[in-house]
User: Fold this.
Amino acid sequence: MAARLFFLAIVLSVGNSLDLDPGVLDLVTSETGQFESILDGILYSRVVGTEEYERAKSYIVDTLADLGWKIEHDKFTEDTVNGTKDFDNIIARWNPDAPKQLILGNSDRCYFTDFLKIFFTACHYETKITPVGFVGALDAAVPCAMIIDLAKTLDNILDNQVLEDNDIGLTLVFFDGEEAFVFFSQTDGLYGSRHLADLWFNTTYSPPAGSGLDMENELDRIDLFILLDLLGTTKMKIPSTSVKDNLIFKNLA
Assistant:
């Protein structure tokens, strides 16, 4: 799967900069049918407030918690065009207090930094309200399954404290309320991402003394944020649309 190759590209790019055992990649394993099994766990309608939505949320949380990830919730209630709704952004962290976080740098290779920059990969897990019964395979059950599959595939590496030994952390985000209830606007749709962005903007953060980094809040810690969405069809072509991140795109392509 793309998510596995994505991480391997990072490891291969930075291996010489880390205290990694040469056999570390042998720890990357995947059971036959693993991805398909994960996808089955969330491939059904997941409209906010329904029993199926709660089941999908529990599946994501329980699966990652069982693998040892620290789970955080950004829960909030908002008045929407379709009434008052309860939302819950799911944040999963591995080695969250590490003084060094996995990032992709603005250069022609991946690298690790000595300070608290963060690498995020994210998706949204709920489905839109219409048409009735919409399962959202590409939007976004497959992206969610890719991220969970990544966590499972890396389990042996994480259990062997490869990240802890190198003071590195990983963060996964599952946004809630991405879909609009009626029509996307400044007030309908992207409920979860807007709320989490506002929360982190207002969460003060001070970088380590002597780092020379100018940071004021949690958003300043994010060096690269990759959102997975509308993925899963055959022979997909994903172009680079950002000049700023083009070198990173080419490095992982």
User: Anything to note?
Assistant: Residues 11-17, 99-116 have pLDDT under 50 and may be disordered. The CA atoms of residues 100 and 140 lie 30 Å apart. The radius of gyration is 18 Å. The longest strand covers residues 83-94.
